[in-house]
């Protein structure tokens, strides 16, 4: 399992992302964008990336040329947003081979540049995003005001245009009823907590996105520093509750978590919603040492078994029942490969 190297704070922090919103100053923003302008955005960005040192590592994906399942898979792997799919006829994405950089084209803004890393590596994710930002803005200037900063379609992104986030697995805080206190605390720091796929989505599998709310009047360094500090505090709190729960009744905790391992190995049907419950328990068990499995491998398996990803795997459109059968089969097979005892 050497391909799944442990990342910092991986037991709680699944991944992190830094996203930059940018618009070319000489083109109309998305709200007034024509098909020709949208095409120009794609041409500029793909040419800039293609001429860079790492150009060969990127793939341009036009949403209009992809099957629906492939578009959904990109969302499920956090490479694009659901919002990008609203504009599928004119939107595209540039994705690096290692899937550590993704540039969404013609979403709410001309460019949404993302740096993506496993575990708590927000600074590294920021480096990746800003490096791509330099390449993409080298020839054509971005809309920028000396007083307000980067200009964006949504006023909440004006300023740095940066959203930094950490995806957290918080089963102990969730089941102990302490998430309310966490939400209150982070809101006072100018941070917010969202569900699995961002704003408006559910926190399935006890997965939560912690991100900054404010982009105006704060530097990028300040935002990253505060997010890292808040994430570290939540990580400590989650670990403390896990430890307390284990000390209180380890046998009961093991029984609860390992039942999901047993079900996942033997199920014949598995809905997407049940998958998230079982994944959360198995990941929790692995992080406590009750199972020996790479956490990044479990995270990838969770994404690979989402509806769109399953459709891409099967190579055809599959119905809900067929998907539940295939998901159960693959879950059992892949877990037996990942879990060593």
From TrEMBL:
The organism's place on the tree of life at top rank: Bacteria
GO cellular component: extracellular space
Limits of the Phosphagen kinase C-terminal domain: 12-241
Biological-process GO terms, alphabetical: phosphocreatine biosynthetic process
Molecular function via GO: ATP binding; creatine kinase activity
Residue sites binding ATP per the record: 15-19, 112, 163-167, 194-199
Keyword Phosphoprotein assigned: no
Residue ranges of coiled coil: none
Listed InterPro entries: Arg_Kinase, ATP-guanido_PTrfase, ATP-guanido_PTrfase_AS, ATP-guanido_PTrfase_cat, Gln_synth/guanido_kin_cat_dom
Keywords in alphabetical order: ATP-binding, Kinase, Nucleotide-binding, Transferase
Pfam families: ATP-gua_Ptrans
Entries under PANTHER family matching the protein: ARGININE KINASE 1-RELATED, ARGININE OR CREATINE KINASE
Family membership: Belongs to the ATP:guanido phosphotransferase family.
Protein name: Protein arginine kinase
Protein source organism: Candidatus Pullichristensenella excrementigallinarum
């Amino acid at each position: 399992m050497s391909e799944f190297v442990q990342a910092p704070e991986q037991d709680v922090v699944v991944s992190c992302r830094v996203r930059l919103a940018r618009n070319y100053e000489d083109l109309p923003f998305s709200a007034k964008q024509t098909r020709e302008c949208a095409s120009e955005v794609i041409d500029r960005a793909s040419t800039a990336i293609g001429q860079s040192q790492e150009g060969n590592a990127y793939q341009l994906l036009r949403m209009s040329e992809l099957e629906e399942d492939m578009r959904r898979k990109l969302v499920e792997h956090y490479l694009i947003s659901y919002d990008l799919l609203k504009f599928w006829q004119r939107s595209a994405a540039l994705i690096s081979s290692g899937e550590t950089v993704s540039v969404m084209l013609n979403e709410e803004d001309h460019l949404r540049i993302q740096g993506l890393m496993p575990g708590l590596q927000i600074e590294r994710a920021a480096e990746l995003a800003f490096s791509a930002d330099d390449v993409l803005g080298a020839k054509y200037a971005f809309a920028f005001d000396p007083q307000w900063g980067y200009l964006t379609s949504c006023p909440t992104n004006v300023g740095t245009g940066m959203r930094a986030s950490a995806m957290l697995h918080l089963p102990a805080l969730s089941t102990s009823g302490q998430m309310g206190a966490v939400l209150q605390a982070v809101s006072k720091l100018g941070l917010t907590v969202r569900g699995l796929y961002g704003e408006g989505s559910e926190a399935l599998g006890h997965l939560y996105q912690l991100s900054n709310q404010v982009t105006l009047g704060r530097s990028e360094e300040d935002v990253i520093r505060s997010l890292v500090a808040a994430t570290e505090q939540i990580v400590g709190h989650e670990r403390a509750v896990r430890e307390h729960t284990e000390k209180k009744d380890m046998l009961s905790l093991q029984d609860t978590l390992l039942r999901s391992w047993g079900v996942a190995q033997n199920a014949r049907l598995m809905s997407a919603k049940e998958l998230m419950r079982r994944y959360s328990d198995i990941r929790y068990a692995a992080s406590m040492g009750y199972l020996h499995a790479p956490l990044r491998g479990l995270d990838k398996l969770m994404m690979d078994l989402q509806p769109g990803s399953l459709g891409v795997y099967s190579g055809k459109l599959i119905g809900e029942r067929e998907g539940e059968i295939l998901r159960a089969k693959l879950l059992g097979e892949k877990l037996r490969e990942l879990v060593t005892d």
